[in-house]
Amino acid sequence: MTINEFNFAGKKAIVRVDFNVPLDENGKITDDTRIRGALPTLKKILADGGAVIIMSHMGKPKGKVDMKKSLGQIREAVEKALGVPVAFAPDCAKAADAAKALKMGEALLLENLRFYPEEEGKPVGIDKEDPKYDEAKKAMKASQKEFAKTLASYADCYVMDAFGTAHRKHASTAVIADYFDANNKMLGLLMEKEVQAVDAVLSNIKRPFVAIMGGSKVSSKIGIIENLLGKVDKLILCGGMTYTFAKAHNGEIGDSIVELDKLDVALGVEELAKKNGVELVLGSDCTATNGLDFGTMTVKEGAEIITCPANKVPAGFEGVDAGPESQKAFAEAIKGAKTILWNGPAGVFECDAFTAGSRAIGDAIAEATKNGAFSLIGGGDSVACVNKFGLADQVSYISTGGGALLEAIEGKVLPGVAAIKGE
Question: Coiled-coil region(s) at which residues (predicted)?
Fold first, then answer.
């Protein structure tokens, strides 16, 4: 069943969205892309004459209640965006009465699903090494089914529209689908669009294909990096992982972020790139500081900002952005590309002093898109960059999913899609 074939009149639909939006220290939304992304599906249900129960996670509270990650903070913003009253259920697993009271044309927002460990289905407070772990995991899987069944009981039909979590087999993204028959579960409009965009990149790669991977850790991206090395012509690696690569060659990186247990992985990536004939582009220089306040994303008074080689960062300084030479190299590598994938910034772009690296990448992608490239931007931070620099309408497609997009590009079947399609 597709969402456009389905008539929601008189029906309550429970919709898994991805409202994991970034908030500032006052709980205000700093980028509402994900909320806007879900609106077409939610509005279609309401326009048909249905009612909508919205469920999402926020952050990683690891199965415990953490009010800093409460979806109550965004209820008003959702109400404003949706244009109908939005009630709030302060406990997602005890919302039966609120769901029952819901009238057609209204919406109900459930509290953060991840306040319950059952959402992710991982045992809490026990190490994987513990001999009792398997037993605990089995028990958790059983209670995950019950949790999903509770969520399903609120509604007549289920819509999966959270591409950002489609790669996870969580209670709300996959398990819940078991409690609806094939005619009452479907992908939302955003999910359909996302799946098509991935197909556009993979089934029809126009070359040269350039991928830009940023972010702080090599470890979280290693699977996709290795996969991309079999597909792309050029791979730009930037952001915090720059310093793990520099360190792997005995560089001096000061206080820069580094994964010391991944130095061999970095060298392995370089080897694989060479073997596959992929041009690997790493930052040669960086902007570094001895006074970034990560809490406020500002530079402390009296702190120094310097430009130095990425493998010669002085003690007490940390690399926080790509330097001018790196920016030139990145832009040059993107020039002339016909397919572009960007996931992860080149620096701490949240601080206005360190946006130059990410901006150079964004501008180069916009230029290449103007010249006929298909550009796919994915992952919260890259999307935030594109929005911050006002480039959203100058790229081909902005994906709401980071990990899901990467896994789909790796060719993996996404549980959130499989659960609907019965694969």
Answer: none
Whether 41 maps to a domain, the answer reads yes
Contacts of 31 (CB under 8 A, 6+ apart): 21, 22, 380, 383, 384, 387
Question: What would the DSSP string read from start to end of 308-366?
Answer: EETTEEPTT-EEEEE-HHHHHHHHHHHTT-SEEEEES-SS-TTSGGG-HHHHHHHHHHH
36 is in an annotated binding site: no
Q: Please, are residues 338 and 209 in contact by the beta-carbon 8 Å criterion? A: yes
**Residue 34 marked in a binding site:** yes
Asked if residue 182 is part of any domain, the answer here is yes
Tell me the residue range of the domain where 400 lies: 204-408
pTM (predicted TM-score): 0.80
Annotation marks residue 403 as catalytic: yes
Which candidate in 164, 240, 380, 401 is catalytic?
Answer: 380
Question: Are 240 and 351 part of one and the same domain?
Answer: yes
Is 16 marked as binding a ligand? no
What is residue 423's predicted lDDT score, i.e. its pLDDT? 66
Residue 296 neighbours by CB under 8 Å, 6+ apart: 25
217 is catalytic: yes
pLDDT in tens, 228-278: 999 999 999 999 999 999 999 999 999 999 999 999 999 999 999 999 999
For 361-405, the pLDDT digits (tens) are: 999 999 999 999 999 998 768 988 999 999 999 999 998 787 888
User: Do residues 384 and 302 both lie within one domain?
Assistant: yes
Could you tell me if 238 and 291 lie in one domain? Answer: yes
Q: For residue range 82-113, what is the model confidence (pLDDT) as tens digits?
A: 999 999 999 999 999 999 999 999 999 999 99
Structural domain tally of the chain?
Answer: 2
Q: Tell me the residue type at 396.
A: S
133 and 231 both lie in a single domain: no
Q: Is 361 exposed, middle or buried (0-12, 13-18, 19+ CB in 10 A)?
A: buried
If one counts every other C-beta atom within 10 angstroms of the C-beta of residue 299, the result is: 19
